[in-house]
Every structure is written in structure tokens, then in C-alpha cells.
């Protein structure tokens, strides 16, 4: 009795239906077809996209193709929706003299007309697949424009999806997101936040430990400020995008979200956050004024030292000599205390509600950003002209356009932050409390614990540039030059 291979594949657009019911119906139809032709059979079944060439069950069937006389499928598109792969399979079927049976009829590939029909049906299946993807993509964008969550079935931590496909806050999960953003504002690293969440026993929705990857992703996800964002891509390029604000209740206020994005932007060198417990007041703040790299601290058991710098630049080592740490700390703390008058003057202005200078500063910064934006927008227009004139290739155009769009997006985000800060100039109570706290701390910097002092200093110091201005060598009697110590304020 001839042997047949029954191949069952559930297509991706059927996944939302009853999988078992569909597979059962297809299986029964093909078993009935095998019985009608008096065939014995083996069954191969799986769930996979028709354009996916890595299908375990289909690959297993093709490996054993020489054992069969017939291939039974519900339709040609169940074999493949990819033209090139369908042609490969057709060649293998012809080589093994395999006939195809479907509920619609038989296909004998040894006949030229049937071979042509197979190729034509595969081409139609591929075209239909592309049209389905396009319609689904447009449908998701249309739903997103209405503020509905259509990105995936996986809803972000902190939210659930209601019957209208809108996101609603799940308070038990939302507290985790608020904690992540608050700690980021305090300059706590993602690694440290992950450890703290683990100690608190806070887990993902599936009960798994929240990793630094989860935290990094959450901190940049605009969904937490109430935004629904969707993109449609063609060949890896974004061809359409939806960005809807106030689509649902925000877990993180817009102002706080933008402040976190600014902190993350400033932290691209990976040195801005507190990554470990500070044992010295200037820990992770001292950088080499010669090569720009971080300077490390060490102790001989009694005294702390700033280590000599030996970072290599173009095969040449930076050889700036080390120095006693305590002298640098005293100098920096004194410089900070000298700023007390500036802080008091700023507090005085806030108390008198004189925000003119602050407003002017923000307006100047906003104008500078708008000037940058205009430059990149002009560049975008010029790119289109250059492409139309054939001055740059399609690939060059796509790469430069994508980079330019990222710059425009970043600048727009910074402008939005400046606008928010301008809108909140009247809310001076928080600023007043912060300045009063800072002024109070300046008088007792040496008294508070190094870790607390270190965290406090990082709220207004970006880095301390240090150079001994002496080359390191074994001559301990050589006269040392006066050190350079510059403070880069936030």
C-alpha cells in the first residue's frame, strides 16, 4: 500500500482561534483523503509562519521524503509562502516522484502544467502573506491612534488591558516601576536597583527576578508616561509611526520621565551612577585631567592615595603621577563651601519669586535647541534632494536619514523638557526645600558619612578633573609641581 506524509501547519493569523479545533478539522480532512486513496500515512504537524524556513516538522518530513509516495496538505500555502523556498521544495518533490494531494484535487509535478500551477499558487500565497501583514500593520496603527494597546499580547509590567484594549494601572506592579524611576533620579545604577528589588522580594509578573535588562528597558519605555507608540516597518525600515500622548493613565509623570531620560543621556559613559557603596567622599568623581579617564583610589593601610594614571592612548601611556587623596578632598570641599553664597543668593531669589534669570536661562537653552532642530530638519530636506538627484545611494540615504531622525527625536525630547521646566517655574516650593537642604549640608560635609556625602556631592558635581602635573617614575626625591584640580558642575 502506498505511503503518504500528511503535513499540517497552523498559520500565524489563526493563533487567536481554537488551535486544537483547527488542527483536528484539518487532520480529519486529510486522513479522510488518505483513506479515499487507500494510503497509509505518517502525520507531521506544527505551528509556524509560512515564510519561516526553519520548521522542524517540515524539515523532518523533507529528510525522509524518499520513503513516501504522496504528500497530503490542505493547500499549497501550507507548505510555504516563500517563493524561493517553495521552488526548492518543488524540486525535491519532483526528484523523489512525490504527488501532492489536497481536498481540492491532485497535483502531479511531472506534468508541466501542474508544475507551473504549483509555482503560480506559491507566488499567490507569498503575495497574500505580504498583503495580510500590511493590513495587520495598518490595523495595529489605526488601533494605536485610538489609544489602544496593540503592540503585542504581552502587556508592560504595571498595566493590564481592559475590554476596550486600553491600558489600566495595576497598583501592585506600578509600585515597582515608580521605584525604578525614583532610584534612577537618585543616580542609582540599574545593577544596584536590581539587587534592591530582589531584596524587597519584588518580581516580574511571572515571578522571575527583575534583571538590569528589564530595568534598562523600563526606564526608556514611553508607555509609563501615558503614551502608546506603534511603528510599521518594511524591510527593516520604519515607514509609518504613531505616537499618542495621554492614551492611558501614566504611572510616571511626564516631567519625571523626561528628567530620567536626560540622566540616562548624560550617563552614556557609564560612570554617572552610584554603582557600589562609597567609602570616600569623592569616590567615582575624580578623573584624569590629562587623558580624561577615571582615577582610582587605593590605601596603604593608613593613608589613601589617588593612583597614578596609566591609561594607554594610541600606544602611549598616560603617566600622570598619583597624590595624597586627603589633600584633594580638602580642596574640593573648601571650593564647595565657597559656593554657599551662590546657593543663598539663589534661595533669596526663589523666596522673592524672582525667577527671571532662571526663565531667561531656560529660554536661551530652548532657543539653542530649536536652532539645532532647524539645522537637522534642513539636513533632512537636503537629503531628499540629494537622493532625488542621485548624489547618494539608496543605502546611504536610508542610513543618514535614520541617524538624522534619531537626532531630531532627541532634540524634540529636550525641548519638551525645557517647556515643562518653564511651565513649572511657579512651583518653587520644591526648589526652595532643596536649596535649604543643600545650604544646611555645606556646613557639615566633614561630619556626615562618606557614602551620604558622596551621594550629596553627585547631585551637583559631574566630575573632578585632577592632574599632579608630574610624570610618574622611581625618583621619589624629585620636586613636584602644583596639582590641577577643576570641578565640573552639573
Short note summarizing the structure:
The protein has 4 domains: about 140 residues, 3-Layer(aba) Sandwich (Rossmann fold), CATH 3.40.50.1390; about 120 residues, Putative Large Serine Recombinase, Chain B, Domain 2 (Hect, E3 ligase catalytic domain fold, Alpha-Beta Complex), CATH 3.90.1750.20; about 110 residues, no CATH class; about 70 residues.
Which tags fit this structure?
SSR_resolvase; coiled coil; 14 helices; single chain; Resolvase-like_N_sf; Rossmann fold; DNA invertase Pin-like site-specific DNA recombinase; DNA_bind_recomb_sf; 490 residues; 5-stranded mixed beta sheet
Count the beta strands.
17
Q: Kindly report the CATH topology of the largest domain.
A: Rossmann fold
**Main sheet: strand order:** 2-1-3-4-5
Assembly classification: single chain
**Alpha-carbon Rg, integer:** 33 Å
Q: What CATH architecture of the largest domain do you see?
A: 3-Layer(aba) Sandwich
> What helical percentage do the residues reach?
40-55%
Number of helices: 14
Distance from N terminus to C terminus (CA atoms, Å) equals 83 Å
Mean pLDDT metric: 81
Per CATH, the superfamily of the largest domain is Resolvase, N-terminal catalytic domain
Major sheet summary line? 5 strands, mixed
> Low-confidence runs (pLDDT<50, min 5 residues)?
none
- Overall domain count: 4
Helix/strand class: alpha/beta
Silhouette: elongated
- Mind telling me the CATH class of the largest domain? Alpha Beta
Percent of residues in beta strands?
15-25%
Coiled coil: 333-428
Protein name: DNA invertase Pin-like site-specific DNA recombinase
Domain Resolvase/invertase-type recombinase catalytic: 3-147
InterPro entries: DNA_bind_recomb_sf, DNA_bind_recombinase_dom, Resolv_N, Resolvase-like_N_sf, SSR_resolvase
